[in-house]
Specification:
95 residues; alpha+beta; 2 helices
């Protein structure tokens, strides 16, 4: 098992319940593809470095998880098409 961190930026115009549902869906994908979530760090609403889809702010989440080497690819395929997700990045953490 490798350690990974997924950074997700969610649309700031969504309600709290909708953001929570989106993060719940992402963590569901992680467990579905053989991973185990070890922590979720919510940074809250931050200003974006540049405008994306006419949005200037987004909610930042950092999800740490353990998984097989195929887990990030499977996860990215599904996160890429999620409507509330503005940007995402999955990186492998050093041991």
């Amino acid at each position: 098992m490798n350690k990974y961190e997924l950074a997700v930026v969610i649309n700031a115009k969504l309600e709290d319940e909708e953001r929570a549902a989106a993060i719940e869906k992402v963590t569901g994908y992680i467990t579905r593809f053989g991973g185990a979530v070890t922590g979720i760090d919510e940074w809250g609403k931050k200003r974006l470095a540049y405008e994306i889809q006419k949005m200037k702010e987004g909610y930042y989440y950092f999800i740490k998880f353990d998984g097989e080497s195929t887990t990030p690819n499977e996860l990215e395929e599904h996160v890429r098409i999620m409507e509330p997700v503005i940007r995402y990045l999955c990186v492998r953490q050093e041991a």
